Q: What sequence folds into this?
């Protein structure tokens, strides 16, 4: 995967990596080595960003101990700056971060490398209800109109 990504002509082709849940540290370390460290863009929530920063700073003892982490939006912004600073210090290609703390959407990117983030935010907000909104019984709602104000 890394070899194929490195053969892409950049900045014409950019690689976006979306985070997921990891329950084994070794799997997360492989994800970091082969995906995160070679990506131009990362998508993650507030817990996943903290997990990555803890890995990078050597403070990640238990990968499953992050579940209850609930930073303020100010902390998320500080960590985003820390993420970009660390990526720059390590000469990583990272130039865009799509954060979704608390189910919201925030895009931070270098304007000279990325087009307006409006389309990405809109697409994300369209996908969220399709895959994330569930009724108490686990089914998806039949009447999306009642959820209009959420979007």
A:
């Amino acid at each position: 995967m890394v070899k194929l990504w490195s053969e892409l002509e950049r900045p014409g082709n950019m690689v976006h990596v979306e985070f997921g849940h990891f329950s084994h540290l070794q799997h997360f370390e492989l994800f970091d080595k082969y995906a995160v460290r070679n990506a131009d863009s990362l998508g993650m929530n507030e817990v996943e960003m903290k997990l990555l920063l803890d890995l990078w700073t050597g403070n990640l003892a238990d990968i499953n101990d992050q579940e209850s982490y609930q930073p303020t939006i100010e902390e998320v912004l500080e960590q985003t700056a820390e993420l970009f600073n660390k990526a720059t210090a390590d000469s990583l290609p990272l130039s865009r971060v799509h954060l979704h703390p608390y189910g919201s959407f925030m895009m931070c990117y270098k304007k000279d490398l990325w087009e307006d983030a409006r389309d990405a935010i809109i697409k994300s907000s369209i996908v969220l209800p399709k895959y994330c909104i569930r009724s108490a019984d686990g089914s998806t709602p039949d009447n999306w109109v009642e959820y209009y104000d959420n979007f």
User: Anything to note?
Assistant: Residues 73-89 form the longest helix (17 residues).
